[in-house]
Write a structure and sequence with these properties.
By secondary structure, the chain is α/β, with parallel strands linked by helices. It contains eleven helices and seven strands. α8 links the parallel β6 and β7.
Length: 275
């Protein structure tokens, strides 16, 4: 599938909406009148800088429509807050869910934007009590906020981290309970589950441990893991399409090889579930 170029090195993502959903998804818009696979996820699923992200690669091999419901920087809240999207998922033959990090969801300490989940909206009275020395009007993104909390006090930050982990497990179980069929979960990261320190502010899925995966795994149809090596990531990034200005952001993506591997693994898994 060809993509139009918007300026030097920029992809046209053909943004589109489905039904009355408020979320702007990556296109071209798919026909939902026949059988289709619904794919939920974040920036990698959306396919930032990817001419052919894994939902598109999977569609070419699977022989039926694969609808990319990925949202940049999405947490679990963006999917739970959109009843139209949940209905579209329940109309699908299969559901694939890329596992997000635990930082971009509302919890007892702070609230995030319902659709742009990486946006920090406000601190709760609990967080203000826990960190009285911080002025929370200085923070606009969850990553910036969490970095400040960790720097201010690692011991108090542990309380926040545990809250995020508990909220993630509960929210993911809540999402899966609203789906009519068991979803295939995807771990797509530059590290294996549990390899990073639980309190490390690293790459997504942030704060997600093996215990958390074990807790939600019985509710899922399958768990697909793709963890490219550093060399594979560098090689795959050569195939990304971006402007010179976006080069630093492109360095944070897993690259084309990871998407190809994930599409192949999903094909093998979903091929056992024919319409």
């Amino acid at each position: 599938m060809a993509y139009d170029i918007l300026g030097k090195g920029a992809l046209d993502y053909f943004p589109c909406r489905y039904k009355t959903s408020k979320i702007l998804f990556r296109g071209p818009k798919r026909d939902l009148s026949g059988p289709y696979v619904a794919v939920l996820g974040g920036t990698e699923t959306y396919g930032r800088f990817m001419a052919h992200p894994y939902p598109e690669l999977l569609e070419a091999q699977l022989g039926r429509a694969v609808v990319n419901f990925g949202c940049p920087n999405a947490g679990l809240d963006v999917f739970l807050h959109d009843p139209v999207l949940l209905k579209l998922c329940n109309n699908a033959t299969d559901i694939v869910t890329q596992l997000p990090g635990a930082q971009n969801l509302s919890n007892r300490f702070y609230a995030v934007h319902p659709r742009r989940n990486d946006r920090f909206l406000r601190a709760s009275s609990m967080l203000k009590y826990l960190y009285p020395e911080l002025d929370f009007t200085d923070y606009h993104f969850t990553g910036h906020l969490l970095g400040a909390l960790q720097s201010a006090c690692a011991q108090r930050f542990e309380v926040v981290r545990k809250e995020l982990q508990q909220a993630w497990v509960g929210r993911l179980k809540g999402l899966m309970s609203r789906l009519d069929k068991r979803a295939t979960l995807v771990w797509m990261a530059d590290h294996h589950i549990g390899r990073l320190a639980a309190d490390a502010l690293g790459t997504d899925p942030l704060f997600v441990s093996q215990d958390m995966i074990d807790d939600v795994r019985p509710y899922a149809r399958d768990l697909i893991k793709v963890v490219p090596t550093p060399d594979e990531i560098v090689a795959g990034q050569q195939g990304l399409v971006h402007s010179e200005m976006d080069a630093p952001a492109a360095k944070m993506m897993l690259g084309t090889l990871a998407h190809e591997r994930l599409a192949n693994k999903l094909l093998a898994s979903l091929s056992t579930h024919r319409v």
